């Protein structure tokens, strides 16, 4: 599969990226021009490569090279630049170079650019940081789907199985075509996070159905941009989302039509003994379509939205029990001090908790994911 990236088909893949980006990403990001410019530049550069080769000095002149911190007793730094301006040209090759079960933190410094590759951090790759140059200028991009990869769980552009993963200022994208109604096997994950104690700061997650597989473990997300249509944050993680933008790209629904065509979350807690669930604080929800805040993928699905602004992209009933009324008794769906047209409680599903201060307290800070035990500040 990786072979297709070479030669002519790289142009086809780039065209696919353009198509997906133009139809979704570009119209929804706050500052989309920089990525568009970057894609155009990368496209032109690739074409150029097919003719005569460009001298390395020219390619490296925009190499940022401000790789911090320097190597110390507790930190190792590996550098990735797609044009060959430092030691690794792919993210995966740098990941492979990380010593197994290293107790040192390994910072993989990734220069700006689009990395067309499927990346896996095995269970042995612990304490790894992906440091990008900005979610609008650095991205790992692939396009597997459930059907092309043997199931949704294997479709991720980036899969993280190692514990103590950190990502900063980078985007994870799956640019497979957006599913049309009735399509089967079109789920396309951008990132799967299955390691414990992961922190993601200033990251972008781009896809349609099943964008962010928050699979298992305790995870912290801050200042992230998360785009999708159906179940775009799903899994059985215990996660805290702070100040994130959640953007639906579901098809617009004509006024007066009652159709629902997406959901922000599909949390997969399966028994009352599991401590999993998603807590959102100070986030915003917008975009297109008519979607639910969550649907009960498994019976004990748990999700709480607090202090979150919601447009009318959220349907009045707000939540869905996956057409299984017995789940109305077992789900834990709460809302606390949310605002905007989408937060109107008048027509909410009856099983939704309208939380008071006491009920909401456990879901309002990173102690929800035991952050005091492991979460380091952004600049550490
Ligand atoms: C991914 O893109 C390549 C190149 O355009 C294409 O050949 C392949 O079919 C795509 N895969 C999927 C699952 O859409
Ligand atoms: C790093 O390790 C060396 C060798 O063990 C030691 O001499 C040095 O003091 C250490 N430096 C710091 C900053 O801890
Ligand atoms: C590349 O690897 C060499 C040899 O290990 C090392 O000395 C150098 O610092 C590395 N450069 C970067 C930019 O990481
Ligand atoms: C490395 O990971 C282990 C668990 O996998 C963790 O206990 C340890 O604190 C981590 N070290 C650093 C430097 O992050
Ligand atoms: C990186 O992310 C942090 C945390 O969200 C943010 O404050 C910072 O502006 C970002 N830096 C860049 C270069 O995008
Ligand atoms: C909330 O929704 C109800 C029912 O649609 C509507 O009557 C009411 O005006 C809405 N409240 C606000 C504050 O928009
Ligand atoms: C919050 O709600 C719980 C459950 O309904 C109730 O027991 C408690 O008294 C309420 N607390 C406050 C401060 O209203
Ligand atoms: C986080 O919330 C808990 C309540 O669940 C509270 O006991 C704790 O003091 C809070 N921590 C901070 C730093 O605000
Ligand atoms: C959410 O925003 C409020 C008001 O700005 C602030 O007091 C609170 O600390 C924020 N909570 C988190 C978890 O960021």
What's a quick, concise take on this entry?
InterPro entries: Pectin_lyas_fold, Pectin_lyase_fold/virulence, Pectinesterase_Asp_AS, Pectinesterase_cat. This protein is of the alpha/beta class and 380 residues long.
Query: What separation lies between the terminal Cα atoms?
Result: 38 Å
CATH class of the largest domain: Mainly Beta
Q: Tell me what portion of residues adopts beta-strand conformation.
A: 25-35%
Shape category: globular
Which fold name fills CATH's third level, the topology of the largest domain?
Pectate Lyase C-like
Number of helices: 7
Strand tally: 27
The side-by-side strand order for the widest beta sheet comes to 1-2-5-8-11-14-17-20-23-26-27
State the domain count. Answer: 2
Rg from Cα = 21 Å
Structural class: alpha/beta
Bound molecules: 2-acetamido-2-deoxy-beta-D-glucopyranose
Q: What low-confidence regions span 5 or more consecutive residues with pLDDT below 50?
A: 1-19, 21-52
Q: Mind telling me the CATH superfamily name of the largest domain?
A: Single-stranded right-handed beta-helix, Pectin lyase-like
pLDDT averaged residue by residue: 87
What is the percent of helical residues?
10-25%
Largest sheet: 11 strands, parallel
Any idea what the CATH architecture of the largest domain is? 3 Solenoid
EC number: 3.1.1.11
Function: Acts in the modification of cell walls via demethylesterification of cell wall pectin.
Active site: 231
Family: Belongs to the pectinesterase family.
């Amino acid at each position: 599969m990786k072979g297709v990236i070479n030669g002519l088909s790289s142009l086809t893949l780039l065209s696919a990226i353009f198509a997906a980006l133009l139809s979704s990403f570009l119209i929804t990001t706050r500052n989309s021009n920089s990525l568009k410019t970057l894609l155009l530049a990368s496209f032109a550069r690739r074409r150029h490569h097919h003719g005569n080769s460009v001298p390395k000095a020219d390619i490296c002149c925009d190499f940022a090279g401000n790789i911090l911190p320097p190597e110390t007793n507790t930190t190792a730094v590996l550098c990735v630049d797609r044009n060959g301006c430092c030691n690794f040209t792919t993210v995966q090759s740098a990941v492979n170079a990380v010593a197994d079960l290293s107790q040192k933190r390994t910072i993989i410094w990734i220069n700006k650019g689009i990395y067309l590759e499927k990346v896996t951090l095995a269970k042995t790759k612990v304490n790894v940081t992906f440091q990008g140059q900005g979610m609008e200028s650095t991205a790992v991009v692939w396009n597997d789907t459930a059907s092309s990869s043997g199931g949704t769980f294997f479709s991720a552009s980036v899969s993280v199985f190692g514990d103590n993963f950190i990502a900063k200022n980078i985007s994870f994208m799956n640019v497979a075509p957006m599913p049309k109604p009735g399509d089967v096997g079109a789920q396309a994950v951008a990132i799967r996070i299955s390691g414990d104690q992961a922190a993601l700061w200033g990251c972008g997650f781009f896809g349609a159905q099943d964008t962010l597989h928050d699979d298992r473990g305790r995870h912290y997300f801050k200042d992230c941009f998360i785009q999708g249509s159906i179940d775009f944050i799903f899994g059985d993680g215990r996660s805290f989302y702070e100040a994130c933008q959640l953007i639906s790209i579901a098809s617009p629904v004509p006024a007066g039509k009652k159709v629902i065509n997406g959901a922000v979350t599909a949390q997969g807690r399966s028994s009352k003994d599991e401590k999993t669930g998603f807590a959102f604080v100070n986030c915003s929800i917008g975009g297109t379509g008519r979607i639910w805040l969550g649907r009960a993928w498994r019976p004990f699905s748990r999700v709480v939205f607090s202090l979150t602004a919601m447009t009318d992209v959220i349907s009045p009933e707000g939540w869905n029990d996956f057409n299984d009324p017995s789940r109305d008794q077992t789900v834990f769906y709460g809302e606390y001090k949310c605002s905007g047209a989408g937060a109107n409680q008048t027509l909410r599903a009856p099983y939704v908790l309208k939380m008071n201060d006491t009920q909401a307290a456990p879901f309002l800070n990173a102690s929800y994911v035991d952050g005091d035990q492991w979460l380091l500040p952004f600049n550490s």
